Amino acid sequence: METKESCTQGNAAQEAPAPKYTPDQLATLYPEIFLKRNELKNRQSVYVSKDVHTAITRLVHVFALDGVEISVGGFIDNILANHMDIFREHLTSLQKKLLEELR
């Protein structure tokens, strides 16, 4: 028997594929999307695994060597904002569906 989690994970992969870019497009888009500096005025704590935090910290340090000023939190915020934007319709639909099931 499938759980709600396995159903939603399977549907996410089928219904909302991530956009595909060429390497040249990524080279141009990546800094514009993920390396833009933003002020986090209303911060919230979020926990990530040590491995993920270490990997992101290393990236941010390398970006700094290239003159990119972005914090670990700012980089994570940009990644999550982009994810929410790309999958907005799917997430809204999934949220409505799951809330209906709870009624």
List the SSEs and their pairings.
Layout: H1 4-15, H2 23-34, H3 50-65, H4 72-86, H5 88-102
Helix proportion range: 55-70%
Structural class determined from secondary elements: mainly alpha
Radius of gyration: 17 Å
- Quaternary class: single chain
Residues in β-strands, percent: under 5%
Through-space gap between termini: 22 Å
The total count of strands amounts to 0
**General shape:** globular
Unreliable stretches (pLDDT < 50, length at least 5) are 1-14
Order of helices and strands: HHHHH
Total helical segments: 5
Largest sheet: none
Q: What can you tell me about this protein's structure?
A:
This protein has a domain at 47-103. Helices cover 68% and strands 0% of the residues. The chain is built from 5 helices and no strands. The protein has helices spanning 4-15, 23-34, 50-65, 72-86, 88-102. It is globular, with a radius of gyration of 17 Å.
